[in-house]
Amino acid sequence: MASTSGTEPPGKDPAAFRTIREVSDQLGVPQHVLRFWETRFPELKPLQRGGNRRYYRPADVAFAAALHKLLHQDGYTVKGVRKLISDHGAGNLVAIAANEAPAVRSGRAAPAEPAPDTESGITHIAFTHIAFLSDDLVGDYARLVAAGYQGVVAPKVAGSGVGRLAFLNDPNGARVELIQRDLDMRPKPATHSIIRSFDHYSVLANDLEAELACYRDHLGMTELKRRIVPHATNPLHIVYLNWGYDVIELLHRPEPDASGVIFGHFALRVDSVDDALAAFAKQGVEAEPGTPKNAGTGIGRIGIIRDPDGVKVELVDRVDLRDLP
Q1: Span 247-257, pLDDT tens digits
Q2: Is pLDDT of 46 > 70?
Q3: Is the pTM of this model over 0.85?
Q4: Complete DSSP assignment for 234-268
Q5: How far apart are CA 77 and CA 93, in angstroms?
Q6: Burial of 229 (0-12, 13-18, 19+ CB in 10 A)
């Protein structure tokens, strides 16, 4: 029988509960990945005690080990594993991961470049990934994989024939592309009668600290600002990070929505949201219901429109994020 549980901690009773650190060490999976799996697989429910400490029962460890094997070794996507659970039951996942149910192995997804319908298990109505330029693609890819991030597409020549690329998943399952090329994609600032500048890309962050470790500590972005949108029970925490001109917005709620869209929107800055929406309406582009409205942060107003493919575009009329006090 093939084992999926890794090496048992020395001197530990097989029936004893394990901390998240012990499970992380046993499986070779970072703790933030284990916490992320809980948001995508509610069947993984370690006991939680004071201080949000997690204790894994033997069945929890076996289930986490099965996830590790299917996702990180066998090439399944989150969506693929969810389908296995739907088709065969959560109780059979350990046996499937141990190759004891070969009839279902054909459900494995071969690594491929992202398609419009992402393989992450999240329904995208926006873009499918974000990209970072690298001057050492092979080295950066290896460094991030060694740090625990799931490699999806190993370094290879880009389909366009210009440069090379690779793909990884961030802790939340978002696709991150690494690109190495000499082509300048931003030779001069664009000008538009309504749009003043790009503002940010929005990224869901169910595990905020893990996302910060990814984008700030491992990918080198700088933390710009933090904002909180008040709510009686589940406030929205917003963290902005940038690399020069480019800004991402991490959105986190203490009680995350596991079905939320990873890439919710991108935002453009205008002088006046109301005037911009009126101008777009004359061109046949209507505002989303409920907008325009005052921003939840209390700074400026926002409006939402969609492009012909359904991508959500947020319009904001505050100052540049890098100039906010």
Answers
A1: 999 999 988 76
A2: yes
A3: no
A4: SPEEEEEEEETTEEEEEEE-SS--TT--SS--EEE
A5: 14
A6: middle
